[in-house]
Specification:
Length: about 775
Amino acid sequence: MLAQICLCITDNPYTTLGVNSHATIQEIRRAYKQLAKEWHPDKNKNPEAEEKFVEIKKAYELLSDNDRRHIFDRHGVTNEDSHFLKQKHDYSGYNRFGFDPTEDFFGKHFFFDQDIGLYHKLSVTSKYFEQTILPKSSKKLHIIMFYNDWCFRCTRIVGAFKKLIDTLEPLGIHFATINAVHEPSVLRKAGVDEIPKMVLVLDGHSYVYRDNTYTTQKVVDFIRKKMPFHIVKRVNDENVDDFLGGWMDNRVRALLLEPRGTPRLRYLVSAFAFNDRVAFGFVDVRSKSTKAIVERFKVNTNLDTLFLFNEDSTRPIASISISEIPTQTLTNVLTSNQFLTLPRLSCQEMLEGVCPAEWNRPRKRLCVVLITENSVEHDSARGTLRQIALQSGYSLERVRFAYMFKEKQPEFINAISKGSFDDNLLRIVIIWRRDNTHIKYEWIYGTKLDVRNTSDNPRENVINTTKTEITHTIQRLLQTSEALSYEAFVQNLLDEHAQGVITKWIARLLYMVDYLSDNVENEHLLAAVSLLGTIAFMFGIGYIMMYFVRAEEENLKAQGHLNENSAIKNNQQTPELKLYELRAEKYNGMIRLLKPGCRTVLLITDYQSRTKLIPHYHKAVWPYRKNKTLLFGHMLIEKGLSWYSEILRLSLCTNKNLQINPRNCVGTVIALNGHRKYFCMYHAKHPESARGTKRMLKMTKQLLKSSDDPEIGTFLEMSNSEESDSESKVLLEDNLLDGLSNWLDRLFEGTTHRYYINYWPDFPTK
């Protein structure tokens, strides 16, 4: 099953031959010969061998053709019949531009003095921009020119653009063009507002080149300005040891020594490409603060020098000294020495670089990994394995040494912990990555890396014992017939160097500031400053006015004209519940013209009792203040006696005039429904108001008769003597509204009696 997975046809010729996209033609030819011998149908009896051999041959044919390889790198096209490979028709024979009427007056080739075909040759699509250029911009710089076929300015700068390509492309900067008419989405995302326009794509961000002059020096200065400031660190005699000794960040140290104040652009581009693996430091050999470095490493101050340091800061592992280091040479040296002797597997990309996947058993690559913790106590164990790696003598193409923090990669450790290190944390495992998810592994037993240097067991014995065990296991596993004991499917490693939330926000803020500084013109800046100044001026005036108001208040308080109680009263809000007095001018609005579903609750008082009854009434109806269908008011019986007598007469359906004592009407509450012409009545002496008490007495009597418990009456606070007292109790004026709350509950439940009338009589005007 695994063999079928590995033999599946792939559309990527680089993957088929097992080389990277930067491989030279010699490396491609060497990989092809090796695979062709292995998968030739006459030698390999695998049923998929013939199909695999054809795939290898097609991949070699594509990559050995410079034109086809260039088109595949840009457009991902592998088909030989693609329109990219078809020859364009030559129109030169038609001599369409053989005679130009403007030639004699303006000079030869006034408009078409340059070949716009250069734009067509480098043109890419939005898909290629999104899927290739943006992801690669984290390590490679890309310059994009937006153009249009009918843009005369575009044709006039073709020569300058071609000169930029010839000058900057050898430095590792990639160029492409995009037709703004065909790809408007990319135009908007890049922030381009006109064409022609050149954009620098760097680490997923687009920076527009605003200058209209496309000279090499101005473009170089523009690129330098946009490069991250931390790519190259300035090193002098004071911080050189700290820089070279900072390899605990899992990066090799590169020291650039140049006889100038700033590093060359080609070195900055290389530093950006290898930033996650190599930390670059720049030394100006002409400065007085770097004399000790020059003496220490015997540097020729007239040449550019590169030193690469591994874990040993006293002796470089590689060095180059030349007047101008070529980009390809610099790339080859960095690629060969981009990992420490004992690197930490801190992310998936590091794992793929140190322990690349290899499904073929004869060519399997082994990785010796120490499982440890991020603590000082385990430094000795890592130092021991580092010394073993230096003394191993194995080819880096077959065996690599590394270590891993247990607490940083728990999922990977759990996947390979079968039959392993529960009893001892410091254990060594040898892994063979078949592909991105499938690995085979075997644990090395008998090692004691956690043993410290003692008289009974010195450090040399520990190193020799561990080295012997590792060497014996590696030699056995490198044999084609040997297989590793365990296998597992693992997920990608967690990226220990990933930016946190705060770091991401800071990076976005810096990019926003940079973007605004590039895109905001002077007039826009002046308008924004004017607006902010106006707002600040208004706030300042308001603050000054508030200051004088507070000073005046303090002055009035000091003179006694203003006290705290009066200030509190002035600041108090009016009650949410307002009581309206029923008068002739308000009669229609409060009763006759009420909307359906609305009612008016009216308290009847006289001049003598209104000051006592209205507060009690206000307290009783306060819970219903937010009800939009209720209107609360009060009426003086002296003004509305005739109206009140008339509605009572209409409710009793009698023609006789009623003789009513106004004093007995005090404390009555009536709820009037103006639309349906009925009202409900509350009065302390009204039978309906006392109905609740009578029901309670009746219930109490039944409980006393049916229960043998002599204390049941005491619990209900009722007795026979209390019943007689309540009937003969004198009702005072302050107690007239005691039962109003209960009556209001029954009113809104709909259990109160309704008195219907035929019409609403007129309210007296006097």
